[in-house]
Amino acid sequence: MQAMSLAELARQIGATLHLSDGDSPETPVHGLATLSGAGNGQISFLSNSKYRSQLQDTSAQAVILHPDDLPHCPCSALVTENPYVGFAKAAQCLDNTPDAAYGIAPTAVIADDVTLGSNVAIGDNAVIASGVVLGDNVQVGAGCVIGQGSHIGARTKLWANVTVYHRVRIGDDCLVQSGTVIGADGFGYANDNGQWLKIPQLGTVIIGNRVEIGASTTIDRGALDDTVIHDGVIIDNQVQIAHNVVIKENTAMAGCSVIAGSTTIGRNCTIGGLSGINGHITIGDNVHFTGMSMVTKDIDQPGVYSSGVPAETNREWRKNMVALRRLPETARRVKELEKHVK
């Protein structure tokens, strides 16, 4: 990304520009850094009071901050009510991430009946199977495989070594990080007198628009109906989403979380890292699970839910485990005492 003036950056992120001595609206900025690490030509931000002590000593060209912090800022400031959102927008403006591919690599293998939109880029050794449709400005990184009949929407970017199985549909403006697998078979088997009989997974995966999927995540295809990820969902690295799961709009899943089959997750939910969600249940809208939550039943009321046990010293943990094993006996004695009191 070329350098951008302070005035233009302020306009792009919706902030009010306050200039310090020596700066002008046309002063260029070219990158972002932390308050303690920023220098000339770099933007920083303050959204967490934990770092307020670093503001007065920063060498940044300008800082994105809340109006309350403006009196303490030694440099130019881009003032906004939500500095973290301002930082995110500034990062987009100054993003220097390369494309996943440039042009059509000569080593790419592309079936004769593939439909390519305008300005499609396909990297080295990518394989695009029969009947695939790639929308305008799609980027397919090196080593990706896109299976028969799949559709990839406009401006979607697949980083290297993503595997998209057959008949998968991915919407517009999506981002899929390396190593992700979309549309592999769900875990469907029947037990026939001790022998596992595979159930072919005949559905697919449908992913909406503006969905982002982290590295090495797996999203299984449906058994009969489809696995569906709605618009605006964000999924972290190393997440497992089983067959026939439905995740509704703008829900976020942190790393190493797992959703078992045929579960529906509502809109605007957040799922903390290492959480496990049981199959065949429904989670309503605006439900938030903290890290390491184990979810075993339907939840229809919005709010924050937790079940993970925070770390403690081994000595404390051993004592607590002893008390936990005695819990049934303790409960029985409490009931007897309650009867006696009554």
Automatic annotation (TrEMBL):
Gene3D superfamilies the record matches: 1.20.5.170, Hexapeptide repeat proteins (2.160.10.10), MurE/MurF, N-terminal domain (3.40.1390.10)
SUPFAM superfamilies, per the entry: Trimeric LpxA-like enzymes
Reaction catalysis annotation: a UDP-3-O-[(3R)-3-hydroxyacyl]-alpha-D-glucosamine + a (3R)-hydroxyacyl-[ACP] = a UDP-2-N,3-O-bis[(3R)-3-hydroxyacyl]-alpha-D-glucosamine + holo-[ACP] + H(+)
Keyword terms, alphabetized: Acyltransferase, Lipid A biosynthesis, Lipid biosynthesis, Lipid metabolism, Repeat, Transferase
UniProt entry tagged with the keyword Transferase: yes
Pathway(s) where this gene product acts: Bacterial outer membrane biogenesis; LPS lipid A biosynthesis
Pfam families cross-referenced by the UniProt entry: Hexapep, Hexapep_2, LpxD
Origin: domain of life: Bacteria
All copies of domain UDP-3-O-[3-hydroxymyristoyl] glucosamine N-acyltransferase non-repeat region, residue ranges: 28-92
Function: Catalyzes the N-acylation of UDP-3-O-acylglucosamine using 3-hydroxyacyl-ACP as the acyl donor. Is involved in the biosynthesis of lipid A, a phosphorylated glycolipid that anchors the lipopolysaccharide to the outer membrane of the cell.
Subunit (UniProt): Homotrimer.
Protein name per its UniProtKB record: UDP-3-O-acylglucosamine N-acyltransferase
Organism: Fluctibacter halophilus
